[in-house]
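Following up on my earlier thread - several people asked me to post the actual chain instead of describing it. Fair enough. Here it is, all 221 residues.
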Amino acid sequence: MSVFQTLKKGVFENNPVLVLLIGLCPTLATTTSVKNALGMGLATLFVLTMSNVVISMFSRFFPKKIRIPCFIVVIASFVTIVKMIMDAYAPPEINDALGIFIPLIVVNCIILGRAEAFASKNGVLASLFDGLGSGLGFMLALVVLAFFRELLGAGAIFDIPIHTSLKPITMFILAPGAFVALGSILGFVAWRRLRREERECAEAAGKYRAELIITSKNKPE
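Reply from S.P.:
Thanks for posting it. Predicted structure:
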């Protein structure tokens, strides 16, 4: 598998949120606005990518029985870097909104899962693109969910009011709205995947029938 296929697979085919359904706690909690979703997505993308690279480089030196604690130490180091950078440069409203969810990146099952399942078993370049793919897929899911929640719940995008005849539905920026919006997006993604599989099956069946017809015509009497 090429590195670009690895990247594409992380973004679409194995999207952490929309396909694998992991990392849902920060997904639901930090998507009240697109700004918050971007902040959380970028932080996770950095930690996931850098952790994958470092773990891929040094995994052979980690004792097998304590490899998970070693992975967590690596991840926690990059989370600390992100937290310090955000405290120094990020807008106060984003820091306040994300709060405890930045330190909790340490125990995000997406990052630990990619470290165990991929980075510890593959080369540095492949692990880099795997981290980028999964991180971009996670950020994409957050931004899409936050877009609909902020638009429907606050009637705005990036805190800029959108002129519309629809009255904002406050529920969508609250916890119940997060579940409703995410469930709707997951349903749409599942429907699209089912339609694609049906189309692929129909194409395969058509090719098989065509081959049978050709074979029967070429069969000697």
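The chain has a mean pLDDT of 89. That should answer part of your original question.
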